[in-house]
Queue: 2 jobs
Job 1
Amino acid sequence: MELPKHLKYIFLEEGETQPAIISNSLSPENEEKLLSILRKNKEAFGWIIEDLKGISPAYCMHKIKMEDEYKPVVQPQRRL
């Protein structure tokens, strides 16, 4: 995914796993401090929906069930 120019990815683990998005304007010293804090507390983050304790994945997902014989159609935006 392409990020805005003022942001960049950092990875908490080798092999580019567990990405985080930080500001490009951080000094190398502050970036290293932030990375250290994030690595120490990585268990506090939900990396996948199932990791989010107390939030059912059913509330995070939206599905529209369609019947096989109907073709999906994009409708024009309506003015209110």
Note: The longest strand covers residues 7-13.
Job 2
Amino acid sequence: MSGSSFCRAYFMSFQTLKSIERMREEFVVVLKKLGFLRATSKGDSGGGSSKSERNRKDESKFDDVEGSEGGILEGMEESEERQQEGNEAQNENRSSPAQRSYKGGRYDPHYDEHAENSGVVKAVLLSALYPQVAHAQLEPNGTTVRVEAFSDKERARLLRNDGEIDAEGSTERSVDRVFIHPSSLNHSYVKDPDNFFTNRWFAYHEKVRSSQTFLRDCSVISPETVALFG
């Protein structure tokens, strides 16, 4: 199955995947400039990647998306790359040594050792998005879930008491009732009280207002992550 066919079959956007890959390349360049990534001696030479190296990179870059297909996205760029080959060759010549070294895959692999650790990834995500955090709790009827975004003071109170009334008995709250956007994978999850999760916190990228206030691009995070990295 070709990459384009796979994307169509599973309702994925090939261009979006390409955009994600370009963003990853840009992030690596920035991290190198800031000194967080150290290229190998081969990558430090500043030379461009050979055609065979680029081909190997293209064939393997999406293999981890669906292991059971044995690299189902292998060859994903075949027709699209042929159409863009001229432009990419020009961009390759204009790119910086850091960009060229990334495209050849020449940086220490230990920088990716926590890539499969969702706890670490979510902690990094929270530290970048904070204070864009929301909390979910069951409504008094026990059948629906209420999601709220709130101030730092209210967030600290919830972390101490897990959403219960504080010691002074105060019920005054500075919160904003929000809803998980229907396009989010978490939308159907919070709609089902049977799936009510232990980790009732969300980090979100944006809050949008239409008929209601919605959270988009949100991820479930643990209270420990909020306490440590918020």
Note: The longest helix spans residues 14-33.
